[in-house]
Specification:
The protein is mainly alpha-helical and 381 residues long. It has one domain. The protein is 65% helix and 3% strand. It contains 13 helices and 3 strands. It has a 3-stranded antiparallel β-sheet with strand order 1-2-3, with helices on one face.
């Protein structure tokens, strides 16, 4: 399974990842100070990061053809784990009406995070195989939608709409990037967006809550709106405004104390803005942007070498992380309604942190294989 490439990981990319990881480690501890057991959060996050780094280092030694060979089994295993959360306690775990976790006593595992990387690995393999059969494009698109919906149905039953959206969009963007079923995909996507738009408009005419949730974040009277739906957004914006350019100082933020819900997970970017100011926020944005630009360049490099599986995997990983990063920041800035999207490499969380690091380890492996002599890449895909 393990195979040396004769290459070391890209040092600039590795340093950027580790720098953002260290910054997030410090900020997640600071953001958790509003809890009585903040040191428990700190030690748990340290363990999660350590496990993630060990697994990422392991991925550096595993060639991509191993993931391609076993992609189907990774996907099936992820589906089984998604189904296991519905078992009664102590196996399944329900929090605030959402059933998303498998209870390992010391660790609450969230299978939807595993499905994000499992979907990318399997979809890349599916696209490579499907390119050989282009005579029935509609049938290929139907197969693709079945793969996506098989995961989405279980995730939606867990009441995790955010993860379902990220997984679906990532898979569809991979399909678009591969250049297959473009006409069919355009037709289906346009029809779907039109149906959703009409449904939301009719819902608004009938006084439905979905239209209100979608539109109230762009209303000019946001600050006089006392609805609970915008409370989280208000507190996040107050924190960012308090930070100004340089912030109030690490650990000196006040929004994390009872005012801002989920300050160490979904809303950690507002804590970064409050305590480190615009400078800290720009550091996060530019560092992550550098990582993603390098990642897309790696995927493009693999495609130039006709290693389509590696290219699709790299593109899928970068698409997933870019979507999640952009949505989290937009949520903190009040541009979209709050939803459960952790900030990659920054937010507190075991499953999310571990699988993000695994994904970045795979991305670094793709780059290492890109830089090998092409004549020696007999097992590279």
């Amino acid at each position: 399974m393990f195979e040396k490439t004769g290459q070391l990981p890209d040092k600039h990319l590795a340093v950027a990842i580790l720098a953002l990881l260290a910054f997030g480690w410090i900020m997640s501890f600071s953001a958790s100070l509003g809890h009585f057991d903040s040191y428990s959060y700190f030690f748990k996050q340290s363990i999660y990061i350590s496990i993630g780094l060990m697994l990422a280092f392991t991925c550096l030694k595993i060639p991509l053809y191993f993931f391609k060979k076993h992609a189907k089994w990774f996907f099936i295993f992820a589906l089984v784990c998604l189904a296991l959360v519905f078992l009664p306690e102590p196996i399944g775990r329900t929090v605030n009406g959402s059933t998303r976790w498998i209870n390992f006593i010391f660790f609450k595992f969230q299978p939807s995070e595993m499905m994000k990387i499992a979907m990318i690995l399997y979809m890349a393999d599916f696209l490579v195989r499907q390119e050989k059969d282009v005579k029935k494009p509609w049938m290929g698109l139907v197969k693709t939608l079945i793969i996506i919906f098989s995961a989405d149905v279980l995730i939606l039953l867990e009441m995790d709409l955010g993860a379902a959206i990220i997984i679906s969009l990532t898979a569809l963007v991979m399909l678009f990037a591969a250049g297959v079923y473009l006409a069919q995909l355009t037709f289906v996507s346009s029809s779907l967006f039109s149906i959703v738009g009409i449904w939301l408009y009719v819902d608004g005419l009938n006084g439905g809550v979905r239209w209100q949730r979608l539109t109230q974040f762009w209303q000019t009277d946001l600050w006089v709106n006392n609805s609970e739906k915008v409370y989280q957004t208000k507190q996040a914006l107050i924190g960012i405004a308090r930070g100004d350019w340089t912030g109030v100082g690490l650990g000196n933020g006040i929004q994390k104390y009872t005012k801002l819900p989920e300050p160490h997970t979904d809303m950690i970017f507002s804590i970064i803005g409050e305590e480190t100011g615009i400078i800290g926020m720009l550091f996060v944005i530019f560092t992550f942007g550098f990582i993603m630009l390098k990642g897309f360049k790696i995927a493009k490099g693999a495609l130039k070498q006709k290693r389509k599986y590696s290219s699709y995997v790299g593109f899928g990983i970068c698409t997933w992380l870019s979507l999640q990063f952009s949505v989290n920041i937009a949520m903190n800035l009040g541009l979209i309604p709050p939803k459960g999207f952790p900030l990659p490499l920054i937010s507190y969380g075991g499953s999310s942190m571990i699988f993000v690091l695994i994904a970045l380890g795979i991305l670094l492996r793709i780059d290492m294989e890109n830089r090998c002599e092409y004549s020696k890449q007999k097992n590279y895909v």
